[in-house]
Amino acid sequence: MADQDFPLIFELSQESRTGFSLPDLDVPEMDAEDMIGSSFVRNKAADLPEVSELQIMRHYTALSKRNHGVDSGFYPLGSCTMKYNPKMNEDVARLTGFSHIHPYQASETVQGALHLLYDLQQSLVSITGMDTVTLQPAAGAHGEWTGLMMIRAYHEANGDYGRTKVIVPDSAHGTNPASATVAGFEAVTVKSDERGLVDLEDLRRVVDEQTAALMLTNPNTLGLFEEDIEEMAAVVHEAGGKLYYDGANLNAILGYARPGDMGFDVVHLNLHKTFTGPHGGGGPGSGPVGVSAELEPYLPKPILTKVNNQYQFDYDRPKSIGRVKPYYGNFGINVRAYTYIRTMGPEGLKKVSEYAVINANYMMRRLQEQYELPFDRHCKHEFILSGKRQKKMGVRTLDIAKRLLDFGYHPPTIYFPINVEEALMIEPTETESKETLDAFVEAMIQISNEAKDNPEIVQEAPHSTIVSRMDETQAARKPVLSYKKGETE
Ligand SMILES: *Cc1c(COP(=O)(O)O)cnc(C)c1O
């Protein structure tokens, strides 16, 4: 699949070649030092690549073709919900009334945008069953931290300063213990039992008067619905703790169950997963947080209110934890989520979780002969396999993931969750057809057969990509992200 027309040459610069033409200067020339001060004036021309317009066009187009995105192929990356992002959302987000406004504009001049945010908040209130929602947090983990800061403020307002611990199951998303730590709590682990669900005995053991909250990822990272939520809620609430729902993966229960009805005090959502915000490359995202009435006074400020049919921001919030983001959240992602919710409607949203769950169960059952299924029970939107059997034949889960590239797929999440050996975490999403799911299953079956008959082909994969195995540590620790003349090749 290597692009023949684009060899691996990165340095295309030729002295004096240009790809731009600027109009002649038609204003009086000014002295740069007078304008910006001498310390900011370059004394040497910047080392920029000197290339023609056609070269630069081909360069970026070729790079874009090497990228695997959800618009180019199946992307079953567990936990990330790489579903299709309808292009209509993009059209709406680009309407000039939304894209050309400024956060410093007076609220009277942006009533339409505020109306949209207000309605989105109300929709998320109905979807989650919480009393109020803030749209400020910019990502899931940011929402977690915001929620925990509100829980802390709540306890402190009650004079309850001894609640220093946040309980996090070992099947939680990795951001949960991290957010608890960043919010100044001690993260205490509670174990899963042989069902893959929170071990209630262990929970009773760790909950005490120091418990600030339990953070529950549901469905958990094994893709399983926590069946004992009511008991868990009772144990934590009786001890005076609050219940936090990690709802990043709400696409598993949308329209069927609501965290508010389960007794949760705080929930965050990932609009850039469940509600079709694109989320490649690390953002921007949106991680709204819903709270029960008891926690409402602590919401980040300002909050958006509707008074006499006018939308405005209320800054008079003495108990607020303060602002958690400049301006009012990632507005463009919120527009996309709003568009998605309105185009799907309540019935459509219900279908989303139906299909997400049916697709995952279908694939899980088709693959369980070849791959070990550590928790043999119905899954929600994603499922976990283990590559243990293949490992005995000398083929690691990493090799399986690399081999999938040869079939044109983005691999699933691997080696996570950490409580499953050689884990493969597969999330098909609801937007894929049965043909796509079947083709992926066939590829996985073929790889499993290769592991038996021809392990080298898997161990040495990928064979079809422009570079094969990379030094992933170096790529993460020392990425080369900018052009430096003569240093890239
Ligand atoms: C993705 C995810 C998060 C973190 O969301 P970010 O937007 O990446 O910070 C938290 N919890 C769960 C269950 C997730 O899947």
From TrEMBL:
Q: Where is this region: Disordered?
A: 465-489
Gene3D superfamilies per the record? 6.20.440.10, Aspartate Aminotransferase, domain 1 (3.90.1150.10), Type I PLP-dependent aspartate aminotransferase-like (Major domain) (3.40.640.10)
Q: N6-(pyridoxal phosphate)lysine modification sites?
A: K273
What range(s) does the Glycine cleavage system P-protein N-terminal domain occupy? Answer: 51-300
Q: Could you tell me which SUPFAM superfamilies the record lists for this protein?
A: PLP-dependent transferases
Q: Name one GO cellular component term.
A: cytosol
Q: Which InterPro entries match?
A: GcvPB, GDC-P_C, GDC-P_N, GDC_P, PyrdxlP-dep_Trfase, PyrdxlP-dep_Trfase_major, PyrdxlP-dep_Trfase_small
Q: Which UniProt keywords apply?
A: Oxidoreductase, Pyridoxal phosphate
Among Pfam families, the record links this protein to: GcvP2_C (PF21478), GDC-P (PF02347)
Q: Which GO terms describe its molecular function?
A: glycine binding; glycine dehydrogenase (decarboxylating) activity; pyridoxal phosphate binding
Identify the cofactor(s). pyridoxal 5'-phosphate
Database matches in HAMAP family: GcvPB (MF_00713)
Name of protein:
Probable glycine dehydrogenase (decarboxylating) subunit 2
Instruction: State the organism of origin.
Output: Halobacillus halophilus (strain ATCC 35676 / DSM 2266 / JCM 20832 / KCTC 3685 / LMG 17431 / NBRC 102448 / NCIMB 2269) (Sporosarcina halophila)
